[in-house]
Amino acid sequence: MVATGVDQRAYWVLLSKVAGIGPARFGRLLERFGSAEAAWLAPALELAQLGLEPRAVRSLLDLRGKLDPESEWRRLEQLGVSVLTLDDPSYPPRLREIPDPPPVLFVSGALTVADEWAVAVVGTRRATPYGRQVVERVVGEVARAGVTIVSGLARGIDTFAHRAALAAGGRTIAVLGSGLDRLYPEENRGLAAELKERGAIVTEFPLGTPPDAVNFPRRNRIVSGLSIGTLVVEADFKSGAMITANAAAEQGRDVFAVPGSILNPSSAGPNQLIKEGAKVVTSADDILEELHLTAVVEQRTARELLPSDPTEAAILARLSHEPTHVDELARAAGLPMAVVSSTLTMLELKGLARQLGGMLYVRG
Q: In terms of Cα–Cα distance, which of 331, 288, 234 is closest to 117?
């Protein structure tokens, strides 16, 4: 039986609560049943035939008997939580590009077009005075340039990064490893309230999810996934910050690192990343110039003044993070070279494309 009059996103929320259904299985459910509602109401036999583990089937059936989609949706509305699903046009475009994007994103505050220009900042919870000074200077300048700062609201470097962005009058996004109603750490509740007014708090975990350790590696891929590049300030070899840096590299995003003393264990992670090819950061310009973010405000204005048309959409659809020659773009789009060249110029102005030289282009 199919329910009526219920926001379809409510069923995405319900499925996100099922233990054992991650992004891959969520995708299989949607492909097999056509909608989240149909998947939620599917017979147990069909769920098992799809390859769902017995515990996932049991969890779904148990929740189906307990949860009401309308009640769950009203609860989110009452708490001021918005929901973005993977098929929502407002879903963050950079996050959509990663290998395992979260099917559901819970948001407190607001994500905007401005957040497409974002840099993640991560590091140790036991920040040194050096680390704090670096964050306040470098992150503050990056935020003043119009770049959104993404971090994890944890103690130490994360907290300093959010505060530096706010002090600079910029936007910042915190990504949680828990539900929005289970804020962690508790001492950052005041920071979270301020942050929500000047950015957003996001998570893939539904309400009620506690901040368990197993959630944070999953959280870290979202931190890097929302960002063009990731900056590691201070981190031990085996730390969440290094997991985030690795996730950024796997996602094809740039990794930056602040060098530190070889005698300080907190600098072991960044120093190792530099050995492996991460870009050294000694000033905000190292980030802004490498990522072509020195004209973010101009690019944002251009995007607002020059809305996409079918030609721009056709060219942009054929661009990726792999370099493509302008001749190939013209052939693939079936457009004259002059049209393709002028369109690429507009896309560059908007920050949606960039030229690598030799008439090779990639997504901005």
A: 288
